Amino acid sequence: MSTKDVDDIRPPLILTKLKAPTDFGNLLVRPRLLVDRGTAVAWLSIDAEDNDAERCIKHIVESIRLAAPAISVDTITLSKNKSEQTIKVIFTELINKIEIFNDDVYLVIDDWHLIHNEKLQASLTFLIEHAPAHFHLVICSRSQPSALPLATLRVKNQLLEINSSDLRFSKDESSTFLRELNQLALETKDIQILWQKTEGWAASLQLILLILRTNNSRKEIVNLSNNLGRNHSISEYLAENVLNSLSPETLEFLLQTAILPRLNGDLCNAVTQRSDGRVMLRTLYQQGLFIRPLDQEQDWFQYHHLFARFLQRRLKRDYPEKIPELHLLASRWFADQGQIDEAVRHAMAADEVEQAISLVEENAMWLVEHSFMGALLNLVDKLPRAKIQEHCQLQLAIAWAHCLTHHQQAAQEALDCVARALIRENYPNEQAIRTEARVIAACIDIYADRLDGVEALLQPCFAEAEACSPWVLSVAHNILTYVFIHTYRYAEAQQLQQQTKSLHQKTQGPFSSIYGDCFAGMAALAECRLDIAERHFTQALDKAAQKAGKHSHAAYLAGALLGQLLYERNQLEQAETLLTDSLTLGLEGGVADFYIATYLFSSRLKIVKKQLGEAHAILSEGERTAHKLQIPRLDFALKSKLIKLYLLEGDVKTAQRLMQYWEQSVAITPASNLGIAEQMFDIRELARARLSCVDGGYREAIDILSAILQETIDNSCRYGEVRIRTILAGVMNQAGLYADAENTLLPALLVGLEQGMVRTFLDEGNAVISIIERLCERDRQHQLPAQTSPDFGRWLNNLLAANKAQSENDDKAVPTAESINNTQHLLTPLKAREVDILKLLENGLSNKEIARQLNIGINTVKWYLKSTYSKLGVTKRAQAVTEARRLKILP
What is the pTM of this model? Predict the structure, then answer.
């Protein structure tokens, strides 16, 4: 690439697409001069295996980190969850780090034509569309990368397309390259001939340079020129001559290491049985032999992919018998380093299938216990399905991985494999295998909200505890804890988790311990002991962040429960952060309660902020999840919330139609499935009570709610009691039963004071607020019962103040109901903050002035503007204001 070409790849260009044919033509088509200028340039050469989204995205992130160490992003989440949402979370953090880096960053991806994975293509599109202006993506491809948004980038003047004719050196540039830069004494006519023969391809000129360095006599130049005209593949001829000019020792090293996509000294030593691998790699790099460093320290290197393919063909031609041995040596090295994915890949390449299976089987439960379900299932996909059918331990691990990621059918199929294997063969640990299979079956049941028979499935595990691994015992205790929670045995649940602590400590990873903390917190929350619940949830989140990563699956599960509790305590910013993270990731695994916390309380947050369109979107997404994963209790909870939302909007008819459809399509009685069916029945009855009030059916609503209240009291579900008392009191107040309303609400408020509860009362609106106002007045007149503390009146006033502040904030910072409805016409509705910024844009404020007025960072303003432009389909400030006015988002 010439200096001019390098200079062309400058801001504001986002995507530079380089198209060149095969045959080493695009070998040097990389902005190497940018490196000389001190610019951060990350290179990634794609191979066929990079068509896997997890693998390729990890390589993209790592290549950028190697080029700019300050831009470091944890990709551990991808080993557990490869959803598009997970990738967006990782790329969003990457984008934020690039924004903060605040200097040009180039990412060069070579051989993009090998990528056909739609998820990967969509992810790169997301990166292109949201990256800051100082990020530049260079795509080298033999074909048009049609899946990328090229047309949009052309319109925005953010695309530079360089084709094969642009990549060739001119005669003068060829002369400069060979004569001045590399000091070869060549005559003008020699330059003319070599330029014509190579058509100006830089890679071919580089190969010529390597040949002539050893012999630049006139005879050699003439001989080289003559031979170039006779060969079908100039590059292969040149490469062959380069290899023939090397010492036998160097050639042997190149051929032996050609099987390695990435190389370092220790790996090369293991494969070549030498001790000077690091020195050899640096020597090859200094000689310009088509090898480049992958990091600033020059520890890891990579052959150019076309040169590597040439070496591999030569190896296959001359030493085919050595290839399996080389792969096996590489496999053993990677296994010793704990890089099981690469170890398995090389074992399969060596046709050592049993070795590959053993590698996966030996590490399978470690991956499960650390919550790397996706990583395990990826490894399993590399193995021949027929060969692993009778590997009991591996099939058990596969069953765990599928169960814990809500793939119930696949988990059951793995258990069926175990059952068939036990029939065909005798295993010395057969009883332990059968016991573990029963625990997995119990786990499948609780993930499906089926609790009948679960305790019976677990009994053999407890009876033969000595034969079970710490993991199996630990999970069995967690499952039993969950059963206790949903059969109202909250004290037993917490006591059981206290006893299970030592078991959790014996497991290989933190996953079972995190679940145990979450379940203990759920039991404490049901008893309305919020401080204890918060301690458990916080402990679970801290463990997950420290041992599995802040973006790990386990962290989002714990974060959803903690977010629910913080919402109750009106700590809305902290709650929103946790719930948004959980929602953005898209939960893939976990019991129903995790999903309910995520979707239900995320929607409640949006309702508090009067972002009703976003609340609808969250509830719709939750319903899709409930149907996909077959979690009816989640579906019930969301339908009940949706009916309340419709009533809040005044859309009574839609709420009534939904209730009618719900009752006709799903029959439910509390007679079976322990406490789950009872909960579902009460959830729908609560929605029916709310609808009854619309037509003045207060008596019916009071009867329904009184029955549910009595159940919560009988079951010692104190949190549920406070919630139902509050709703019932509101209905009584609407019915004009003011004394009954106050007497019903007062016990709930006393618990609220004790536990720091807020949202349960505020979210029921004016009907409950008016009761609190009357109780405040009674407190001032000393007319409340003697058991109320001196702090009670102050706390009631604080509740009223919080409600008032919320109302005032709604008026100032949240768009009107009309503008919210209008934003629903957008594919993605605008956030309240984005509307705020639009209003300031309309007033002509600069980014700096907007940041100062809203008390946020200027980069945050840029981020919101980029998101707003994308949603409105515009590229400029004036266009955004005009479009917002057209949609009536702005007056």
Answer: 0.74
